[in-house]
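Re: the 44-residue chain
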Amino acid sequence: MLKLTYIVLTTFAIAIAAHDIPQEIGDFGVLVYGGFEKKESYYS
């Protein structure tokens, strides 16, 4: 049962990362396109 819990939690962590990383890259691109410098948009 404990092994199943680790599998489920790992699956959720991968799913969250797979959703969140492209979202952040898109936000970075929008800020740079909107006139922010890369350094400013990285820390925003």
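The CA atoms of residues 28 and 44 lie 8 Å apart.
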